[in-house]
Amino acid sequence: MELNYIHSNFRLNGNSYTIEELIALAKEWELGTQEYLVDLGRLIIEWFNTNDYVSLTTSGTTGPPKIIHLKKEAMICSAKATASFFEITTGSTALLCMSTKFVGGKLMFIRSLIVGWSLDVKEPTARPLDKNTKLYDFVAMVPMQVENSIEELKKVKTLIIGGAKVNQSLADKLKQVTTKVYETYGMTETITHIAAKRVGVASFSVLSHATVSQDDRGCLVISAPTVNPELVITNDLVEIINNKEFKWLGRVDNVINSGGVKLFPEQIEEKLSKRIPYRFFVASKEDTYLGNKLVLVIESEQYTLPNDIYAELGKYEKPREVQFVSKFVETETGKIIRKKNIQ
């Protein structure tokens, strides 16, 4: 597979480039002061160097961030699988509004380069479509960006959301838009997503280059040999429908044993999402009587909770304590680090 390749239809901010011209531009960006262009410049230079891999840092959601190497050939396979699954063909328009420090942003650039899209690059902000007048065939965002862009989504034909789970409140808002909106499932080790589902649909469909199964914990196991020669064993509890479809239930490392009862935070959060107008999560805290008790943590100034806030919860799902935090500690990609936000 040829690695030093630019599709003849590839455009970057409206301009076509040879490899030499693109590297020269990247070196200019690398010496500049705009961080997002510095990062993209470094990616371009690394992509066209003599190594067969790209280095990147994992998000650090479940442990310390670490540097790993992704094979360029595997990244190309992932890029082509995404383009095929979402039917984003050569000549399509795309917007890069995520950081290229992380796998989602890197792959958005590589897809455009390899498949031949016309890619615009914009600084990653909370409102990436603000003051934008162009129409795009394909855009990737994190949930926070989508939350701030509901009114502007009419400018996007297909939107994929990654980096964190789409909560019920956001999903309800997205039912009103004409854009095809997908929630994706993946990680750095699988070179971004291996599955996606339309927002509002229960189960994820697996992309062509992967299949899924379950381990003895009930957690997802991913086989995607074109992007990772090893099986990827996750900590995500799932219901397997078949080897190309699954339902996500929650993280096994988030499961709480309270007084001998297993509680699934993500399922409790789903029930609470329509009743809490702020970001929040539920987690556990040591308790002398129960072993662990359920705690609700809300990103807000303290306020009086409505009487019916727990109306949809089961007997053992009701939090024993509520905490208010002014600002959540999170990863650079916007994932809440639960353990660092509990008082």
TrEMBL record:
<dbReference type="GO" id="GO:0006631">
    <property type="term" value="P:fatty acid metabolic process"/>
</dbReference>
<dbReference type="InterPro" id="IPR000873">
    <property type="entry name" value="AMP-dep_synth/lig_dom"/>
</dbReference>
<dbReference type="Pfam" id="PF00501">
    <property type="entry name" value="AMP-binding"/>
</dbReference>
<dbReference type="GO" id="GO:0031956">
    <property type="term" value="F:medium-chain fatty acid-CoA ligase activity"/>
</dbReference>
<dbReference type="InterPro" id="IPR045851">
    <property type="entry name" value="AMP-bd_C_sf"/>
</dbReference>
<keyword id="KW-0436">Ligase</keyword>
<dbReference type="InterPro" id="IPR042099">
    <property type="entry name" value="ANL_N_sf"/>
</dbReference>
<protein>
    <submittedName>
        <fullName>O-succinylbenzoic acid--CoA ligase</fullName>
    </submittedName>
</protein>
<feature type="domain" description="AMP-dependent synthetase/ligase">
    <location>
        <begin position="57"/>
        <end position="196"/>
    </location>
</feature>
